[in-house]
Each structure stands twice: as C-alpha cells, then as structure tokens.
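Chain X:
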Amino acid sequence: MSGPLTQPSSTLSDAEYLRLSGSVLACIEATADRWLQDDVIDIDAHRTGGLLELRFPNGTQLIVNLQPPLHELWLAAKAGGFHYRHVQGRWVDTRDGSEFFEALSKHASVQGGKPLRFEPAAPPG
C-alpha cells in the first residue's frame, strides 16, 4: 500500500485525549521506573509536561511527545519519527497502522540492546 492510511480524524474530546495520552505517558514512566528498580536496564525517564524522554545507557533516546491540537502521540526514535492517533481503543501509526506499544517496545529493544516490552495499562474495572 502506498501513501498514508486513510483514518478518520480524532473523535475524542480534548479531555478524553488528555486523559488517554496522559495515561500512556504514566504507563511508560512506571515501566521504566520498574526496570530501573529491578535492575533490568539503567534507563533514565524524564517527563516535562507532555514530553517524556527515555535515555538508554548507550546515550540514545526515545522521546514521546503529546500533540494536543492533533490529538496524536509522537514518537522520536533513532529509526525516525512516528505519529499515532487513537482509533478504536488503540494508538495506531497514521502511516502504517502499527500499534504504539509494539513500536515503542521494538525501538526500546533496539536502542537498549536487549528485549524490552512496554504494555498498555489495563483498563480500569
């Protein structure tokens, strides 16, 4: 398939977007903190508002940035930049439809030099 995927624009309200995207950042932070505490990897997570930086021992970074006007999550990795939109309960790449946490895990594993897996937080209830 060539060109961007045709996806509907966000149907989220601004409040829903902020709640869902904020929970993604909190989940990533909690995972990185757990890995550091459990001596899985010496990863440094630093959050400033809607920007979360993950620094790996080799000096590379992953950056997850909220884009409220577009209702998107942006991921900057050594391999490039990726944009994700919330569609049917999942954050999906606006170009290829891949899932955010799968991509984040893949890029973190490459940059961290070992298998690392991020998982979305379980829905409440």
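Chain Y:
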Amino acid sequence: MSDKEQIENIVQLYIDSMDESDPNKVKHAFHSNGKVVGYLHGDFMQMSTDDFADFVASQQPPPKEKGEDVVFEILACEVEGTTAFVKVRDTYLGITFLDTLSFIKEEGQWQIYTKLFNVESE
C-alpha cells in the first residue's frame, strides 16, 4: 500500500471516529502529542489528542445513529518523505469545516499530528 493510500485510510479513520463518536479511533488516527486548533463560534480552541477524543466521545448519540453521517471530501494530499498534509472539507454536527491535517510517519505508521480547522459555515 502506498503512503498516499495509508494516509487516506487514516483520514477515513478520523472521519469514522467522529461519525461513531469513538475516542479509540481518534487515538489511533492522531499522534499522542497531536493538537487540534482553530476558531469555533468565534472562540479560539486548542485541544490535545485526548481532549479531542473526549469531545468526540461526548457527542451522543453518535451522528451516524442520528442519520447525520459526517460528509467529507479530500481536496488535496501531498506526501514529502515522512511528512504529509491533507486538506479535507467535512460537515460535522451541522458545521462545515475546512481541515488542514499535517501527518508524520513514525515507526512506519502515519498519524495526524496537527489539525488546523476553519469553519466555513455554521
């Protein structure tokens, strides 16, 4: 499997984690030192991987069970050695985000290291 395919699988795992409110999938997709940063409802947000996993887990019932599946599109994916970035547009909890995900390959495994998000519409 190519690096790009592995990265796209991690993006799918990230989307599935939100769709299913599954904190374990968040922790598999994100590096343990990962960060999630952006503005939501005008407030600056900064979360660790654990904080984001807790936030995702708190969304009950999960979007998938409510028939509000997370919709997403990969807009760009570039791999440079052991780093990569992916731009993803997704709709989660009724909000459309543009996420810039940075990836690191550590011990042969790709993980999201940072998620910078921009709210496109609420």
